[in-house]
Amino acid sequence: MAKIVVDWRGGGDFKTVQEAVMAAPEHSDERTVIEIRKGIYEEKIIVPVSRNAISFIGESWEGTVLVSSDYANMIGADGAKIGNDNSASTFVYADDFHAERLTFSNQAGLYKGQAVALAVSGDRAVFRDVCIRGNQDTLYTPGQGRQYYENCFIEGTVDFIFGSATAVFEQCELHSIRRHNGYITAASTTKEQLYGYVFLNCRLTGAAPEHTVCLGRPWKPYAKVAFIDSWMERHIRPEGWDNWRDPERENTASFAEYGSKGPGARLVGRAPWAKRLGKEEAEGIKSAALQGSDGWDPVMSLGRHLITER
């Protein structure tokens, strides 16, 4: 296992994270651990497809911060808007990416509109003890890869977890910051995918007003989202879900809950087209969502061993 140290003060192998990424071997069977020392790294970071099996290991959420402030309506060098796909502070295109103990942030501001903090399209991505901060469109998960988030803090306003990947969020806090008419998820799961976003034992907190935030709305017709054994504050709307002004999506989207708790979890007022899972259904989703054809288990992946070795 190779190791590269990043320190903006000059005490490591490189001063920027991007330099370290490009120094990692291409298409490697061996993991490269990039240790990022305490500091604010104001740079746009791209982990290309060729740099697979990379780990970003920071010192703490507060101490190691990867940040930029691009936003979708920002004018680029060509005189045109850069668009949401190009707004991310950090892009991860490679497979088998892993990150721990750091923050991914976009500081474009509340009134700049769409501005992605982290975009992940690679397969078998693992994030543990990570903070992802932004406003609208904070975390973008395009493609159909599998992603696992454990003990993470993710904040935003509108559609702040969005995309088509299959992603499991376990023991995470999803924090809706101050704004009316918020949406936590905007899944674009394809018809062929069995699972979309799965939230296990998560906490939904918020500074948003009471009854102003929906659990999700279907960006695409076959969006799939399930909240299992999660706790919800009063900012969650009684109806829970929104059809994105398209009643036809009520027939194709799969929005479900099991074991919801807290003042925002009164299922009596939920949208009638949303589903209440049974215990066996919920257990089946928990065990199968990320397996795929290779039987991937993120809990037993290399990322688990890295933190215990440090």
UniProtKB/TrEMBL annotation:
Q: So what family is this one in?
A: Belongs to the pectinesterase family.
Pathway, per Swiss-Prot/TrEMBL? Glycan metabolism; pectin degradation; 2-dehydro-3-deoxy-D-gluconate from pectin: step 1/5
Q: Which reaction does it catalyse?
A: [(1->4)-alpha-D-galacturonosyl methyl ester](n) + n H2O = [(1->4)-alpha-D-galacturonosyl](n) + n methanol + n H(+)
Q: Which leading EC class covers this enzyme?
A: hydrolase
Which InterPro entries does the entry mention? Pectin_lyas_fold (IPR012334), Pectin_lyase_fold/virulence (IPR011050), Pectinesterase_Asp_AS (IPR033131), Pectinesterase_cat (IPR000070)
Query: Which Gene3D superfamilies does this entry report, sorted A to Z?
Result: Single-stranded right-handed beta-helix, Pectin lyase-like
The EC designation for this entry is: 3.1.1.11
Write down the species. Paenibacillus solisilvae
Q: Report what the protein is called.
A: Pectinesterase
One protein family per Pfam = Pectinesterase
Keywords carried by this UniProt record: Aspartyl esterase, Hydrolase
Q: Record's superkingdom?
A: Bacteria
Active-site residues are D159
